[in-house]
Amino acid sequence: MPSSCAHFHLHDFVRPGEAYHYARTDLVADNAARYHDHDYHEIFWVVRGEGEHRLNGKTHPLAQGAFHLIRPEDRHRVNGSDSAPLRLVNIAFPSDSWHEIRQRYFADEPDWFELPEARRSWTVDTRGQMLLNHWSERLAAVSRPRLILDGFLMDLPQLRPAVAATVGRAPVPDWLVQALRELSKPEVFAGGTLEWCRRAGRTPAHVARATVRWLGQTPTDLINQARMDYSARQLAETSRPILDIMLDCGLNNLSHFYALFRRRFGVSPRRYRLQAHPTVRG
To answer: pLDDT confidence of 171, banded at 50, 70, 90?
Structure first.
């Protein structure tokens, strides 16, 4: 390996007990990492700004929504811009973690990290960026548990189809983008469909047509996802009673809450809490 290429080790970034490294970084022209390869798998995406990605000797522009899968043997570096600083989210994790997830859930598909370079990067659409915002919040969990890493990797198929979905279709309207941001607030999703539509400034019928057209989901689907994602964060990061978390979501039927949560995450709320943060009981 030439002296101009550094070699990074995962153990330099990940503390004992953590399943992955998470970083949210702002880059300008003069604070890029060294050109390097590493002994782990990596995923990064651009939240905003502009920059360049030098990968295996070739330089490519970066802009909001750029999403990249990086193999251990890839040599790369990212440069930001002084005029439009680059905000980047980066996830580094053991290669074995990806191989286990792939064998368990995607064994019949090609290994996405082994595809040609042009197919290991793409630009996610608005829906994909909203999904990445959700995962960025969860991956930032203090304990960096394996459960959250696995959930993120299992959601990769939802990001890949989003690329093709933007072709030949009008962009998501600004009012809907803003409404989706509002949906992350407990006071909004707790109020259900009517409160969300009120915040969006559109009738329920208008909102329903728009979400099905651009997102392929009903307003109820989106609200329940927001409720369950909030619940998952509360379960993983606090010791609050499950009943209190359910009430925060605007729900009052525990059986219904459990059914929604299991549909979203595959386990009960209590099991999720124990897996994500074993020291917490509730």
So the answer is: low
